[in-house]
Amino acid sequence: MIGLLLTGILNPPQSVAADRVRFAYPAKSLNYLPITMGRDKGMFQAEGIDLQMVLVASTIQVAALTTGDIDFSGAQSQVMAGAARGLPVKVVGFLTIKPSFWLMAKPEIKSMADLKGKIIGITAIGSSTDTLARFLVSKNGLTPDREVAFIGTGTTANILTAMKAGSVDAGVLSPPFNAMATQMAIARSLISAITSNNLFQEWARPTE
User: Fold this and answer.
1) In 52-176, alpha helices (H)
2) pTM of the model
3) What is the domain range of residue 66?
4) Domain co-membership, 110 together with 78
5) Residues 70, 54: contact at Cβ < 8 Å?
6) Which band of pLDDT confidence, cut at 50, 70 and 90, is reported for residue 13?
7) Do residues 140 and 79 both lie within one domain?
């Protein structure tokens, strides 16, 4: 026993290198706070994971997954669409049980009907902000692209900037940007995806 203890002291076990895991997120948002906190608090490191978070446009994340440039993606809409097309990707989990998005609009826009002829800011075509905006527009009797236009800004922060500049009339925002828009008095909430009853189930329901 003493010999074993001395051997352990004189020749301590070598620490095992953590596995590098690259997680791509499409926008700086509180939606990814659990991942960020887990990394900063050392939770992933404690499990032998060297988590690297990289900001990548949602439109190219599926391609990056298939080429091995990233290991995990936070762009669930694109991943699900890629899987539906037969690409070797799949959804393994969600960070939230409901989509934490708010459709924010200029103060003078009081209802969804008032969005006719207006422009909604989204992050990118095919993103969660895009599919949600189109769903809400259609659900409320308007025709996407014909009666309501959509402009991809790249990031959620850019949507807020576009709303402040007046280049879009509304935008799909996640925390903290929806609260910032309210504080700046440039927008009001039309619809909250996280509090609206059954909205998530309807939005996520497969279509024929």
Assistant:
1) 61-67, 76-84, 128-139, 156-165
2) 0.72
3) 19-84
4) no
5) yes
6) very low
7) no
